[in-house]
Amino acid sequence: MRARAAWRIAWGSIRSASTSVRGPTGRRHDPREPEPDRDGRADRRPHRIAGGTRHSRLLMALVAGSLVTMSPAACGGAAPATMTGGPAPTAVPTAVPTPGSTEGRTPGPITWDVRQGPGRAGDQTIVSDAVSTGALLVAVGMAGTTLETGDTAGVWTSPDGRTWEPAKVAQPAGTIAAVAGEPGRLVAVGTVFEGTSGPAAWTSVDGGTWQALPASAFAGSSGYEPGALEDIAAGPGGFVAVGSEHGAGGSRAAAWYSPDGLTWTPTQSDLGGDSAGAVVQFGSGYVAAGWAPGADGDDRALFWTSPDGRTWAAAPDAKDLHDVGSTPILAAVAQHLVAFGYRSHQWVPTEPIVWTSQDGVTWMRQAAGGVVAPLPSVSPLASDQPAATGLAVGGLIGTDGVFVAAGETIALGPSSGTGPFMARRVVWTSSTGGSWSIVAELPEGPADPGADPAIVGPLVVHQGRLLVFGRPMGTGSAPLWETDLQGLLDQAS
Q1: CATH fold of 21-492, please?
Q2: How far apart (Å, rounded) are the C-alpha atoms in residues 85 and 447?
């Protein structure tokens, strides 16, 4: 089962608002300024959101998921969580949160096995995506980063999600954003940073050894050069990768098709928009999502459909797609599609957004209780006034006829000085995407002494188990949460 993640950037430290953040180009930049693109110009694409000195803007720069920031408000409750434990798995029963906005019943606790995820502690390992072939679990992302060498692509394999082995990755400079495939053919895509950002892709027949495709494998359209690859999907007709390309006219969305993951052909060049950041198989075809800047900040989400991965048609423009600040993330279950994004004002997110569709062409913006996106929330783990609070969705998948999302309610910079960042991690489920329920809370995970806390990353289902990958906020280990999938789904029934 393919994981779906919202995270597409490398993380820097958030120990103070003035800390520089490592951006997608592998360079350090001041979070108050937009990350420059390959031409040295400020890049407005949503996967490179720039931060600011305010805590809320720093949170926006660091959390590239579906995010909402709110005005400061009292957030009473338990004291901030202190992450404890070691790399050994720990079975932790956790009660299901029961906030007033949560729908459905409140069943018993779910037991989570919590352990250190792939990679070595202290390497700033980031898992951006994962896929199960049935017998093998493959996770991809960034194995580490330094100012001297930049980012290093990483792949890890596991038969059971408990023991991980690093794979052999040829030409690992850069980062891997996504992986897709089946037994005998796996393809990973991402970005290579060699002065400028360009496409990168690797293939493997067994998950343990990966060969890099030549840079010429991804061609740009006339007058344009290929840029970063953001996502990939495998379907009956082959593979589809989406991202962007750059030219004199700026950046625009792009897609490539391959029957085997080895040879790639650019699809039609007039997709429109600024970038494409997500793609899923849907029925016998594909659905992709992207983003386009608009006048006076009226940015909008874009969706495209394809019957074969070669030809694409844009979904008609609609009011529900406007006033959006991010490329949506996607998941599909049977005849239902769900997309997550957020609404923003001058780059400051103001509320999350959920769209649903039954065909990829017509999208409905969901609302509940007058609030766009029916996501129940829980109080942040803070005992004092935070500088900002938010809700971030870090992973989204469709499995067993149900959508499963995971993320956290965040409190950033409480005035009591108890820490710069706290999160309460939760799991939601929905049958159609129109209404959501909290079914579990993720317990504390292993951490190194003095390490920054971790936030929620991608999800994957492997051999009947749901795995939730954590993302370290700066230094420290990346936790991995695991539980029985059916037991989790029983909470929502």
Answers
A1: Methylamine Dehydrogenase; Chain H (2.130.10)
A2: 6
Alpha-carbon torsion angle 199, 200, 205, 211, nearest 10: 140
- At 435-444, the pLDDT tens digits run 888 888 888 8
Bridging pattern class, strands 209-212 and 196-204: antiparallel
pTM above 0.85, yes or no: no
Strand stretches in 58-136, DSSP E? 66-70, 90-94, 110-116, 126-132
| Nearest of 179, 175, 177, 167 to residue 192 by alpha carbon | 175
List the chain domain ranges.
21-492
pLDDT tens per residue across span 136-176: 999 999 988 776 667 889 999 999 999 999 999 998 889 99
Partners of residue 28 on adjacent β-strands: 22
Q: DSSP character for 160?
A: S
Instruction: Quote the CA–CA distance of 314 and 319 in Å, as a whole number.
Output: 15
Q: Could you give the strand order of the β-sheet that contains 454-462, starting from the edge strand earlier in sequence?
A: 90-94, 110-116, 479-484, 465-472, 454-462
Could you tell me which residues are beta bridge partners of residue 282?
285
Q: Is 46 helix (H, G, I), strand (E, B) or coil?
A: helix
CB-based contacts of 277: which residues, under 8 Å, 6+ apart? Answer: 8, 46, 47, 230, 231, 242, 243, 289, 290, 291, 327, 328, 329
Which two structure tokens, joined as six digits, stand for 151?
Answer: 């980012």
Query: Tokens 């001058």, residue?
Result: 346
